């Protein structure tokens, strides 16, 4: 059996990651990978196979609704085995609508993709990360691929084949888009939180933690004394019993002793790492990874190591 | 304004027990209203307070789901529609198909509100699918909704940006938790809500012929829940490098 | 008696008439609220006043001087015509007048000082102008009543002005009839109502049994007119004495609450438009959340105004209206979902007992005591040490006890104090069922909130147990010699005891923790505010679980007071106090050590 596995994401970086996942599916299904672009070619995406440019939607800014319609029109004609999107918020929206339009199944935010020829399987976190579910959907199928789970592909796709899908009206109108400010990131929806405790000696020193948070694409939180008693950060940064309850993928506690009132607000984080000078600090009991050390040395070291990786 | 809100009776992940072999014990697991669905109900109630009308809550699931429906009614929704279906045989498309069919029966609605994703399975697929199947514009991940006349202005909270979108009424949306602070229904309000009407529909009858469960769960296994307590040593630079390695391996570094 | 002139007779007649008016007004108010003024009640009041006299409370002494001054001058006026013929009588009155004059002058001084305080508090709270002038007017009236009574007593020493005395008396009596009759009636009705009684707007068991229609239940008060007659008598009896405000920790911390202002606001509202307007437009949410339910206001009020009764009903209204911020609703949701306010798994409740060989009721149902650990000592690492210390003492003394372990749930107190009566009663009913299923007879508690609920509140819902506080049991064990501290183990530290409101003021447990300290440390110091006058740590009334805007922290004020004794250790008897004061001493950097009395004793054995 031979067919195609399509890759699309509104983000070029994510598209290159999804391409790697698509290779795994294509291998099991003896299919080819197609890197899909909508309305204009994006030369920076990477992946195996050839490009497919869907022409019709005029604007290069493609909303999830337009992307879903364009992909659906093309898929009805070209009948790919699978269409993989990135599990970004826009990507999830587009994939779900696409699946509903085509009347096929959609696997959400999967990693570990494979194919048995008849369908594809993947793994996804359920129950707040406590359980991994192995799911399967027979072809034709749609899936969104977990962001960050695959390395970006390096291959340069072959030249584009074009397909005109016709004009697609958008029922909604995008009025504008603003970058979220690092400080104003809502802690409850942040995927990474760097949290500062009384181990930080001066207000000015918070800057090194804020930088680390930004470098990790996360938000800065704190223990209560820093906001309520010292007033170094606004109240909404304080995590714990009397503050916000958070469930990020990564909670990095820096100079926080880990009193119960604090832990109550971050206990459901997926991974907790902590840095503390006191090897008996209770925070280590609530951590997956611990570094006994001075934050004034470890945090700059982390910044350097991160910079080296990017 | 007629407002439909979708809620799910989700597995309470905090209370979920895992057997020694690592299998989650789903049969008889404790359930609760999916966390963010409370925000969806709250937003429905706020829209109703601003524009009059009624809030109808919909759910698809087994008999236990009624508890969640009642909680939404206790918060202040006017009536409930319960689509009865075996929850173990539901995937997103099937759920959305039933919800959309139920809404067509008791609709039309001006606004359909879901939450960004269920707290147990978190696929986030049902809301856009419902929008698609109802044939109305859909704007997801709303952190602010303002309706004026026949137009809604919605702020979408994306990964690192906020997008302002204008959509015509009727529309469907999903909300993120930052949109509001859901109200707590008192025990007595929950008991009082048992007087509010709940209509029961059969999921099998609602779903059109030929529709089925597409995505099946092959197996589930538990990840160790206890913290790992790995202590990392070495100089600051060594420790930092080891920590980043470990975190990338966990897939939590983006 | 010579020269019965017309002027004197007229004055006497007016004075007598004013006495009749006072009596009439008092009796009709009592009838209106169906309150018995019988000799039994009055004698009971006398005994209670004598008890309070012994506590040496200054405000109370002043209040007593006013009451007795009014009484003495009325009697004096009534028997005035006879007075001239019996010089001994006059001497008797003159003798009595001296301490009363002193008391009244001090009372006047207090009033003046409270007047300035109340202006300051009023400005801090931003009370509206109308309120401030009504408050000032009432305070001036009462200053006038005190001044008149004092003058009357002074005039006893000026024999030639007999009739002037009578006229003053009549004027003062008119003020008494208008302003003092109601508080007197309130006092007679409520002087013996225990601080720990809480009104119950419905009975959940009846709702579950189908005897009460949930739709008919109204929990909370939204309009002043919805307050019960008993409650409106309470707020209408306030004469701005200000003792509540002076003792209130919330006011002291600069929170947006003064019990005096709250009560007077309700009273003025009830008069403004028949009580039909929304209370919550005049009373702020944080005003209500500021209260720690410490009971200082209720205990210090000389006329038995029950502030807490009013606050609970208004909080219930906020809860019913869903006017809760994230912390409060999360706490309630945790109680609903996990049966503890933290939202932790109950399975971990007994983790403090690991390696300590503590029985659970499941494994050993025949023990003498059930140790009710409480949520804080179950989950909070610091407070877990108290549970371990208690277990060590009990084992040392050979007391048989067991815990419920994973089956323990929250006692319900945080829900009730926050105003979620339904959730509270649900927990109570579940707990009673569990306790009865194990045939529990005696319960031991280390948390005074658990203790108070189990002892004073559970019986109303059918849970009848003998409930003992850990300090009571341990001090008994010390007295019986089952726990003894050898002289060389007595700790050479200076300690001051912080009485927990719910143990001391609510349940009159004063001496047991002191006996424990006497036996185990060599230097015990006392703070000024102690025993029934203790000052809250700031955690009560569910305040542990949320934040309220404030200028200072209540725990910080208390920690400072403790440091003022020069002691190096604060002894607590409640896990909440422990946590609050531990935090406060860390914030202030005073370096004081905070430990539960049970920990201190356990270290000595
Ligand atoms: C009713 C109540 C509610 C509360 N609610 C909350 C809440 O919601 N959230 C909250 O956070 N707290 C809350 N608290 C306070 C809580 O009890 C703790 O006091 C607080 O969390 C401690 O904050 P911390 O860990 O930053 O400070 P500390 O406990 O002082 O810990 C500082 C830590 O930093 C470490 N350290 C010092 N120097 C360095 C260095 N150079 N490098 C690395 N590490 C260093 C120390 O070893 C120590 O472990 C509450 C308290 C009470 C009483
Ligand atoms: S109970 Fe305590 S905190 Fe509440 S008003 Fe009275 S004195 Fe103030």
Plain-language structure description:
The complex is a heterotrimer of chains A (310), B (254) and C (605). With 310 residues, chain A is of the alpha/beta class. Chain A has two domains: 4-164, HUPs (Rossmann fold, 3-Layer(aba) Sandwich), CATH 3.40.50.620; 187-308, TPP-binding domain (Rossmann fold, 3-Layer(aba) Sandwich), CATH 3.40.50. Helix content of chain A is 26%, strand content 30%. In chain A, the strands form two sheets. Chain A has a nine-stranded mixed beta sheet. In chain A, helix 6 links the parallel strand 13 and strand 14 (271-276). In chain A, helix 2 packs across helix 3 (89-102) and helix 4 (206-215) packs parallel to helix 7 (295-309). Chain A is elongated. Chain B has helices at residues 37-51, 65-75, 92-106, 126-134, 187-192, 203-206, 236-250, and strands at residues 2-6, 9-11, 31-33, 54-61, 79-84, 111-115, 138-148, 151-157, 161-168, 171-175, 198-202, 215-222, 230-232. With 254 residues, chain B is α/β, with parallel strands linked by helices. In chain B, the strands form two sheets. A nine-stranded mixed beta sheet of chain B has the order 9-8-7-10-6-1-4-5-11, with helices on both faces. A two-stranded antiparallel sheet of chain B has the order 2-3. Chain B has two domains: 2-211, 3-Layer(aba) Sandwich (Rossmann fold), CATH 3.40.50.620; 224-254. Chain B is built from seven helices and 13 strands. In chain C, the strands form two sheets. Chain C has a five-stranded parallel beta sheet. Chain C has a four-stranded parallel beta sheet with strand order 7-6-8-9, with helices on both faces. The relative contact order of chain C is 0.08. With 605 residues, chain C is α/β, with parallel strands linked by helices. Chain C has four domains: 2-190, no CATH class; 204-320, Fumarate Reductase Iron-sulfur Protein, Chain B, domain 2 (Orthogonal Bundle); 326-476, Rossmann fold; 484-602, Rossmann fold. The termini of chain C are far apart. Chains in contact: A-B, A-C, B-C. Strand 15 of chain A pairs parallel with strand 13 (230-232) of chain B, so a sheet runs across the interface. Bound molecules: flavin-adenine dinucleotide and iron/sulfur cluster (SF4).
């Amino acid at each position: 059996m031979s067919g195609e596995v399509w890759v699309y994401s509104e983000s070029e970086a994510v598209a290159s990651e999804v391409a790697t996942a698509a290779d795994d599916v294509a291998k099991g299904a003896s299919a080819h990978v197609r890197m899909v672009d909508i309305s204009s070619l994006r030369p920076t995406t990477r992946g195996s196979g050839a490009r497919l440019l869907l022409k019709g939607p005029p604007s290069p800014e493609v909303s999830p609704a337009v992307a879903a319609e364009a992909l659906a029109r093309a898929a009805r004609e070209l009948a790919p085995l699978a269409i993989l999107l990135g599990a970004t918020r826009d990507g999830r929206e587009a994939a779900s609508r696409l699946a509903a339009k085509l009347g096929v199944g959609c696997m959400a935010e999967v990693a570990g993709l494979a194919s048995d020829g008849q369908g594809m399987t993947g793994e996804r976190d359920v129950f707040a990360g406590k359980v991994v579910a192995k799911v399967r959907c027979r072809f034709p199928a749609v899936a969104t691929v977990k962001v960050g789970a695959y390395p970006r592909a390096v291959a340069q796709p072959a030249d584009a084949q074009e397909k005109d899908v016709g004009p697609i009206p958008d029922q909604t109108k995008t009025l504008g888009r603003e970058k979220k400010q690092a400080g104003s990131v809502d802690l409850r929806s942040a995927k990474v939180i760097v949290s500062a405790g009384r181990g930080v000696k001066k207000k000015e020193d918070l800057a090194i933690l804020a930088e680390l948070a930004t470098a990790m694409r996360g938000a800065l939180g704190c223990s209560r004394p820093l906001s309520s008693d010292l007033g170094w950060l606004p109240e909404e940064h304080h995590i714990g019993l009397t503050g916000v309850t958070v469930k990020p993928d990564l909670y990095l506690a820096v100079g926080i002793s880990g009193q119960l009132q604090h832990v109550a607000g971050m206990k459901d984080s997926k991974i907790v790492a902590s840095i503390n000078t006191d090897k008996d600090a209770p925070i280590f009991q609530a951590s997956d990874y611990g570094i006994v050390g001075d934050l004034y040395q470890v945090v700059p070291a982390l910044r350097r190591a991160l910079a080296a990786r990017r | 304004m007629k407002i439909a809100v979708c809620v799910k009776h989700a597995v309470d992940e905090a209370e979920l027990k895992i057997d020694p072999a690592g299998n989650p014990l789903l049969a008889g697991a404790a359930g609760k209203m999916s966390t963010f669905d409370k925000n969806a109900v709250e937003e429905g109630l706020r829209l109703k307070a601003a524009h009059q009308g009624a809030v109808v809550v919909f759910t698809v699931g087994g008999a236990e789901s009624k508890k969640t429906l009642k909680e939404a009614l206790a918060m202040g929704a006017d009536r409930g529609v319960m689509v009865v279906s075996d929850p173990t045989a539901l995937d997103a498309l099937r759920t959305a198909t039933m919800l959309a069919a139920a809404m067509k029966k008791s609709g039309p609605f001006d606004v359909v509100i879901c939450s960004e994703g269920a707290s147990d399975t978190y696929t986030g697929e049902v809301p856009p699918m419902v929008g698609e199947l109802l044939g109305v514009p859909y704007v997801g991940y709303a952190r602010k909704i303002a309706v004026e006349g026949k137009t809604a202005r919605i702020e979408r909270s994306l990964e690192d940006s906020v997008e302002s979108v204008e959509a015509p009424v009727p529309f469907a949306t999903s909300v993120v938790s930052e949109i509001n602070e859901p109200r707590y229904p008192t025990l007595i309000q929950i008991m009082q809500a048992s007087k509010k009407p709940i209509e029961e529909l059969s999921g099998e009858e609602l779903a059109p012929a030929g529709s089925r469960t597409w995505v099946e769960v092959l197996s589930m296994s538990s990840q160790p829940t206890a913290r790992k307590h790995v202590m990392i040593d070495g100089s600051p630079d060594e420790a930092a490098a080891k920590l980043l390695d470990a975190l990338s391996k966990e897939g939590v570094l983006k | 008696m010579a020269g019965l002139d017309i002027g004197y007779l007229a004055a006497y007649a007016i004075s007598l008439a004013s006495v009749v008016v006072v009596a009439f007004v008092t009796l009709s108010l009592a009838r209106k609220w169906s309150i018995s003024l019988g000799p039994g009640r009055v004698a009971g009041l006398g005994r209670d006043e004598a008890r309070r006299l012994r506590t040496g409370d200054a405000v109370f002494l002043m209040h007593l001087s006013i009451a007795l001054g009014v009484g003495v001058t009325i009697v004096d006026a009534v028997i005035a015509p006879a007075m001239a013929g019996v010089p001994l009588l006059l001497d008797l009155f003159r003798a009595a007048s001296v301490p009363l004059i002193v008391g009244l002058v001090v009372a006047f001084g207090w009033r003046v000082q409270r007047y300035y305080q109340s202006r300051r508090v009023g400005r801090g709270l931003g009370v509206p102008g109308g309120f401030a002038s009504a408050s000032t007017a009432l305070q001036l009236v009462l200053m006038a009543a005190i001044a008149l009574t004092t003058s009357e007593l002074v005039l006893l020493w000026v024999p030639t002005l007999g009739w002037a005395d009578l006229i003053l008396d009549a004027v003062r009596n008119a003020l008494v009839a208008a302003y003092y009759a109601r508080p007197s009636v309130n006092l007679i009705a409520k002087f013996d109502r225990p601080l720990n009684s809480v009104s119950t707007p419905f009975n959940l068991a009846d709702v579950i049994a189908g005897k009460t229609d949930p739709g008919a239940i109204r929990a909370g008060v939204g309009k002043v007119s919805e307050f019960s007659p008993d409650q409106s008598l309470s707020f209408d009896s306030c004469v701005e004495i200000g003792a509540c405000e002076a003792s209130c920790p919330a006011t002291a911390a600069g929170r947006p609450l003064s019990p005096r202002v709250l009560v007077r606001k309700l009273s003025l509202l009830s008069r403004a438009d028949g009580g039909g307007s929304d209370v919550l437009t005049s009373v702020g949410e944080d005003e209500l959340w500021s209260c720690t339910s410490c009971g200082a206001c209720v205990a210090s009020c000389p006329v038995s105004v029950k502030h807490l009764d009013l606050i609970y009903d208004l909080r219930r209204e906020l809860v019913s209206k869903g006017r809760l911020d994230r912390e409060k609703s999360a706490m309630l949701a945790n109680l609903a979902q996990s049966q503890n306010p933290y939202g932790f798994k109950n399975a971990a409740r007994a983790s403090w007992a690991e390696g300590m060989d503590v029985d659970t009721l499941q494994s050993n149902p025949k023990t003498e005591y059930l140790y009710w650990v409480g949520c804080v000592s179950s989950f909070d690492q610091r407070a877990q040490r108290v549970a371990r210390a208690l277990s060590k003492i009990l084992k040392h003394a050979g007391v048989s006890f067991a815990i419920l372990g994973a089956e323990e749930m929250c006692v319900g107190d945080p829900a009730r104090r926050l105003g979620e009566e339904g959730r509270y009663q649900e927990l109570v009913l579940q707990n009673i069922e569990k306790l009865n299923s194990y045939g529990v007879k005696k319960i031991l508690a280390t948390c005074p909130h658990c203790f108070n609920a189990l002892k004073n509140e559970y019986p109303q819902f059918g849970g009848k147990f003998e409930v003992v506080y850990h300090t009571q049991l341990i001090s008994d064990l010390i007295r019986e010699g089952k726990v003894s501290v050898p002289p060389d183990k007595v700790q050479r530290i200076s300690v001051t005891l912080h009485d927990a409101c719910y143990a001391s003021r609510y349940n009159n447990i004063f001496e047991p923790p002191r006996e424990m300290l006497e036996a185990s440390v060599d230097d015990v110091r006392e703070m000024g505010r102690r025993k029934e006058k203790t000052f809250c740590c700031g955690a009560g009334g569910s305040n542990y679980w949320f934040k309220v805007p404030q200028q200072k922290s209540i725990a910080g004020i208390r920690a400072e007071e403790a440091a003022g004794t020069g002691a190096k250790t604060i002894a607590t008897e409640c896990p909440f106090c422990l946590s609050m004061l531990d935090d406060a001493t860390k914030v202030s950097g005073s370096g004081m050590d905070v430990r539960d009395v049970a920990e201190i004793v356990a270290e000595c054995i």
